[in-house]
Specification:
There is one protein chain. This protein is of the alpha+beta class and 371 residues long. Helices cover 25% and strands 21% of the residues. It is built from eight helices and 15 strands. A four-stranded antiparallel β-sheet has the order 2-3-1-4. A four-stranded parallel β-sheet has the order 7-6-5-11, with helices on one face. The protein has a three-stranded antiparallel β-sheet with strand order 8-9-10, covered by helices on one side. Helix 3 runs parallel beside helix 6. The longest helix has 17 residues. It starts with a strand and ends in a 15-residue tail after the last strand.
């Protein structure tokens, strides 16, 4: 039997043995009843006015010959664990005559293509930019020589803008379908650190992403998916109110059983095309902001106090929010602890900045992208 124990609190610098002993203490059981102990989720609580501590959700495999039901009644944070995994959508009806088309190979495009491939639909992925291997050279050239490739840069290309960022994997959506675990497990299988499976604020880091993204591509291709880079979609082919394919800037027209636009927010020309075509668009609220670069030690001292610099503490982050008397809200977001502010332009004559950090968030070799 596997039990789940939530809100398990320990000092931030505890040992693995102390974690195990704390579980045994809470359950009031002998160690012989405990067969396995795995961390399911981990977070750091460094709010002011209390000692810094780690909060866990753990999975506990126990022997069956014990009155666990009575114990569950006593401990409100203990329950029987019900695993749930992502279920692929089932195909109903006949197989379409043409393959689905996915426009864009950022996070949305990658995982849409992966699910389509897993259901046997062999998607065609069209990406205006370059594969990671070529794209990294263009990004490095922009940073070192200020030479901008408007179709292959920090924003455009395989992996999307996230490839040259922190690779944050947070979501505020409460999802019981297993999609979150699906994404994390696929990333780990492709080479991302195992730690992202348990961190409350998981992130992959730039160097890992540059290796993970091509492996996801290879997996999709192995299931029949096809990638076409340097293929910019400039028009939708619409018949009877439904998308029937796309047109490329080369003039080539490609038919598809469905078209998924996973273009991100930077493909302004794509949105202009959709508006011109009369496609219904819904305006989304947006925020105007700016980047601030602090020394990491300053943030650590503000967050951790005297414990700043302790080897058991990761680089600190923070989030601030304030509502003005006029109802406007000011807030901080998209922080990259131990990282850098980087140039991220995709158009000539513009200045765009983004944040980037490695998995270790140690501030070292922040711009050292694998060749």
């Amino acid at each position: 039997m596997i039990l789940q124990l939530k809100n398990l609190v320990l000092p931030f610098d505890h040992t693995q043995e102390e974690l195990k002993n704390r579980v045994l203490q809470l359950l009031k059981i002998d160690s012989r009843l405990l067969l396995a102990l795995d961390i399911q989720r981990s977070s750091l609580d460094s709010r002011r006015g209390r000692p810094i501590r780690r909060v866990y959700s753990v999975l506990i495999e126990v022997r069956e010959d014990w009155d666990w039901d009575s114990l569950i009644q006593i401990l409100p944070n203990l329950s029987k664990w019900k695993p749930h995994s992502y279920q692929l959508p089932s195909l109903s009806g006949k197989r379409p005559l043409t393959r689905p088309i996915v426009v864009g190979s950022g996070p949305a495009g990658i995982f849409a293509s992966l699910v389509l491939a897993e259901t046997g639909l062999e998607p065609l992925i069209l990406e205006r930019g370059e594969p990671v291997e070529t794209r990294t050279k263009h990004v490095r050239q922009f940073w070192s020589e200020s030479i901008l490739n408007t179709e292959s840069n920090v924003q455009f290309g395989e992996g999307g803008a996230g490839t040259f960022s922190d690779g944050k994997l947070g979501s505020r959506i409460k999802d019981k379908s297993g999609r979150r675990e699906k994404v994390l497990l696929e990333l780990v299988e492709a080479g991302a650190p195992q730690q992202i499976l348990i961190d409350s604020k998981p992130h992959v880091g730039t160097a890992y992403l540059a290796r993970v993204v091509p492996r996801l591509r290879e997996k999709i291709q192995a299931m029949g998916g096809e990638y076409r880079f340097d293929s910019k979609v400039v028009n939708l082919l619409v018949e009877n109110g439904a998308a029937q394919g796309v047109e490329l800037d080369s003039g080539e027209r490609i038919s598809g059983s469905a078209v998924i636009l996973a273009v991100g927010h930077s493909s302004r020309d794509t949105f202009e095309m959709l508006k011109t075509r009369g496609i219904a668009l819904s305006a989304k609220p947006f925020s105007v902001g700016f980047r601030i670069e602090h020394p990491q030690l300053l943030i650590d001292q503000a967050q951790y106090g005297k414990q700043a610099g302790h080897p058991a503490l990761e680089p600190a982050d923070y989030q601030l929010s304030y509502r003005t008397s006029l109802g406007r809200t000011v807030y901080s977001f998209c922080m990259c602890p131990g990282g850098y502010v980087i140039g991220a332009a995709s158009e000539e004559g513009t200045v765009v900045t983004n944040g980037m950090s490695q998995f270790e968030r140690d501030g070292q070799n922040g711009r050292n992208i694998p060749r």
